[in-house]
Amino acid sequence: MSAINLLQELLKASEKAANIARVCRQNQRLFSLLIQEKEKDESNLRFDHDFKTLADCLIQEMIKHDIGKRFPELRDNIRGEENAKFTNTAGDTVMVTVTDDPTNTVEVLEKLLHGDKDAVTALVDEVYRDIELDMESLELPTDAIPLDNDWSELGVWIDPIDGTAEYIKGEEKLTKFPNIAAAGLKCCTVLIGVYETCHGTPILGVINQPFAEQLDDQDDGNRGKYSSKIYWGLSVGDLKFNNIAPHEPDARIAILSPSEQSKYIDFIRNQLKYDVIYSSGAGYKILKIATGEAELFLLSKGTTYKWDTCAPQAILRSMNGDLFNLQDTLINKSVKKISYQDRKVTRNMGGLIAYQNIDKLREFLKL
């Protein structure tokens, strides 16, 4: 078993996901048809209205199909945020499926899109497209990295589009630090994380930003005027690899949710002397800790889920950082890492705190 083979397939799947996200976003008429409010039992408690799009459902099912086909023993352990059932604006409900036979996907999409063959063709082309990535530019290790686990002993968490609200609104807002967005498409990420089912430890993560860079006066076919930025991290035993260059931040930056409690904001700003900024998307915020563009991520509420955190936590671990349960860390003074061992627990109760530098976490605890 080679971790690099799995990583390569996850990278390809993430870029195919990014293409689907761009296709759905590029066609405004298509996009307006494909937004559905989630049922109460599948919505995020933090939002009054929580939406999913056909892009979310289609991406999730595509990743399940592609990874499951390449690694059949993994298939039953691949899970994601979305329910595959989707209802369009006309009230038509279907189960979004991706199989080896494209005609099945065509039939599903034609029902949802009222027989709009051009839109269906654009989406199906992306779902079944062979993705070619420049693996050299993604800085993959040249040596084989064996995994001690059987494929059946690994689990996968997918967030097909983290930051769906930002994906829908698309209103770009920057913070005072130009490399950190406050809101908008830059905060949207495709998250694919792999963990050991026995110990619940994330070992491999891929984060794809579908709208990372806007292309100058170019249109990449139906996929729109954007290109991806892809990050990955691998942590197997003592072996740690990633494609993130060291970065010295311009200031001591804490990145928080706009809805964070004032007592935490005041403590971080006044006691810890951080420059506090606000941003959207849990995956995006934790990514900024991994890239070194921010030093501290804190979320006091239990409003994130395993699909939000598995991939970015794996990347943090590849840099000797980690993601911790905030309440356990504060109240019990026990540094408890976020774990994926219990399949029944999908929410990160107790909030989160992330550091790339564990010494900084110790400083935090002393205060």
UniProtKB/TrEMBL annotation:
<feature type="binding site">
    <location>
        <position position="81"/>
    </location>
    <ligand>
        <name>Mg(2+)</name>
    </ligand>
</feature>
<dbReference type="InterPro" id="IPR050725">
    <property type="entry name" value="CysQ/Inositol_MonoPase"/>
</dbReference>
<feature type="binding site">
    <location>
        <position position="159"/>
    </location>
    <ligand>
        <name>Mg(2+)</name>
    </ligand>
</feature>
<dbReference type="InterPro" id="IPR000760">
    <property type="entry name" value="Inositol_monophosphatase-like"/>
</dbReference>
<comment type="similarity">
    <text>Belongs to the inositol monophosphatase superfamily.</text>
</comment>
<keyword id="KW-0452">Lithium</keyword>
<dbReference type="GO" id="GO:0046872">
    <property type="term" value="F:metal ion binding"/>
</dbReference>
<dbReference type="GO" id="GO:0004441">
    <property type="term" value="F:inositol-1,4-bisphosphate 1-phosphatase activity"/>
</dbReference>
<dbReference type="Pfam" id="PF00459">
    <property type="entry name" value="Inositol_P"/>
</dbReference>
<dbReference type="InterPro" id="IPR020583">
    <property type="entry name" value="Inositol_monoP_metal-BS"/>
</dbReference>
<protein>
    <recommendedName>
        <fullName>inositol-1,4-bisphosphate 1-phosphatase</fullName>
        <ecNumber>3.1.3.57</ecNumber>
    </recommendedName>
</protein>
<feature type="binding site">
    <location>
        <position position="308"/>
    </location>
    <ligand>
        <name>Mg(2+)</name>
    </ligand>
</feature>
<keyword id="KW-0479">Metal-binding</keyword>
<feature type="binding site">
    <location>
        <position position="161"/>
    </location>
    <ligand>
        <name>Mg(2+)</name>
    </ligand>
</feature>
<feature type="binding site">
    <location>
        <position position="162"/>
    </location>
    <ligand>
        <name>Mg(2+)</name>
    </ligand>
</feature>
<keyword id="KW-0460">Magnesium</keyword>
<dbReference type="InterPro" id="IPR044897">
    <property type="entry name" value="INPP1_dom_1"/>
</dbReference>
